[in-house]
Amino acid sequence: VAAAVTLAGVGSAGMASSPCGGGNFDCGLEIQTRSVEQTLIPLVSQITTLINHKDKLKKTEKTLRAIQRVGQAVSVAVGRFVAVGEAIAAENEDLKDEMGLACFEARRAGTAIAQLTDVSSLEQCEGDGRSTVFSDRTGMVKAARMLLSSVTKVLVLADCIVIKQIISSRNKVLVTLEQLERVSTFQEFVQIFSQFGNEMVEFAHLTGDRQNDLKDEKKRARMAAARAVLEKCTMMLLTASKTCLRHPDCESARINKEAVFQRMRLALEQVIEIVTDTRSGGEAKALPVSIYAGIKDFKVKVEGLRDSLYCVSCEAVAAQLEALMEKTEDFTDSAYTSHEQRETIIQLCQITRQETKQLINTWRHAQLLKAKEATDEMELSILKTCQSVGDLRRELHRVAVGRATELLKLHSDHLVLQALKASGGDGNLEAVADYAGTLTEHKEQLVETCRLLCHISGTEPLEITCIHAEETFRVIGPQIISAAQTLALHPTSKIAKENLDVFCEAWESQLCDMAILLKEINDVFEGRRGALIKPFSHKHLKTVKAAKLDAEEQTTIAKLGLELCLLTSDVDSEVERWDEQDHEMVRLCQIISSMAYSMYLFTRGEGLLKTTLDLFHQAEVRQRSFSLIGFLIESLQGAIKSNASPGKDGSIYY
């Protein structure tokens, strides 16, 4: 594919002239997706075969037939390709002119290649005097250049349609999101949320396909983070909105709900920024430079002095080192860094400064001597400088990973979350306030630890995942507190309790993701290339070989999962109204609701159901429960017929 980019001029500022007599053709395109690259590979292979033949190729009948077959194959493939491109142009008015021009150029280039490779016999090749691949190599190169350029443009324009689909899907989600935010009745909310669920499933599939297709690792990581927010916020939106509808005058419930809607909007905007490669502010947001990246770049410059003493200035290296030392203050200024760790980091920084200063002295001396390469003394300084900065990186890694490991152990029992749930259920606002202070302190510790992990993560995708984890803890902490305050104000409210449970589960889930992130960072540090963190991974224990579901099957399962979740909420709301909570019917409804919710979690790769066998067993038990409820209903109907009596106002009493 690199050959295609070079040959066609794609991604460059230049222009590729048409071999077919047409004007200039703008090739300032950038291939951003794997699918476009993979589509170009066969074409690149065939054209490379035609262009890279030997100048003094032995013209046997076998060689001529082979060249003609390749030329014909290219021409036929281009014809089919152009037909699809023209059909796309006809269906998309805004791309019609550009796509039409690209298809026209591709067809002309394909025809030119077919003519140049029409060498079916030795007599024809040598006797008629017309241009062929043997006599007009320049013409073949020009035709190939135009073909690759125009085909690439068609592919990139077709990719624009995929982007339009994602934007359109996002817009539908935003409209429904605004409707959900304004609803005032539970019935209206249920109706709109069902539509919202379907739209979110469609958006999830489009963005998931896009994420897998992106070439850029940083964009894939950012897309994964944004999709994780949307995935988890969908359930939060459901319970937070229901809580607000049940308790419309509760300020903490309103704050809790608004935070969820705001976070979803930001995540939707981030997805669009990634797929369109633009930002709403007009400028790309650069990642803050981590200590790992700073050390890596510093070592490259220092080791580059072996090749050239004049490629960079002494002042630039000294300034870069100071910027690097300044970033270590995130470690030394932290209240959670021990005195011994702080002293070790400061000492290693001083050693690095000393070694770099010595390197600069020997470097300047070598420059004064007009040396063409590093002297032995300078070589020794380079080694010592790289060793000292490497020692600093190892210490920072040890401190950050050690801190994260301790925090994960500390929070593994979730005692603060349990205390908040218990205090809220008891209606104890004072206790909720106390535990909220403790949770806030834990949140600050986790946020700072994620920032330190970002410094030493080792790859840009892992840096992005650290930033996502930091933001998640920063946002969910206050949301848990507002949910707990709502429960304390309404301790008998089941929906307020469910809402608090959902936010606590999100906190626990993020702690699990942080443990995986920690392992990935260690893998990179130890030389094992870490895979990109999946914010919501499926960890089913499979006893049989898994079958890959197609997009339609995945959509069906996701929609059924959301419907189960919504029906569960409906059942819980209805059951809550019953006066006799120990009634057999109520108990069975609660069991079925719990099982349905477990099945919903299974569609997300979470919960207690781990295998499809577990799911089938749960469905069977649920079916038996439905049968029992049917029996109870028949019994109640019989009792109603035998005991019903009309009241004075015409109503029926039982």
Automatic annotation (TrEMBL):
Key word Cytoplasm present: yes
Keyword tags: Cytoplasm
Where found in the cell? Cytoplasm
- Superkingdom: Eukaryota
Name any Gene Ontology BP term.
Rho protein signal transduction
Q: Which is an annotated GO molecular function term of this record?
A: actin filament binding
InterPro entries in the record, alphabetically? Alpha-catenin/vinculin-like_sf (IPR036723), Alpha_catenin (IPR001033), CTNNAL1 (IPR030045), Vinculin/catenin (IPR006077)
Any one Gene Ontology cellular component term annotated for this protein: cytoplasm
Would the keyword Kinase be found if you checked this record's keyword annotation? no
Q: What is its main location?
A: cytoplasm
Family from the record: Belongs to the vinculin/alpha-catenin family.
This chain belongs to the protein called Alpha-catulin
What organism, scientifically named, is this protein from?
Cyprinus carpio carpio
Tell me the classification of the organism that encodes this protein. Eukaryota, Metazoa, Chordata, Craniata, Vertebrata
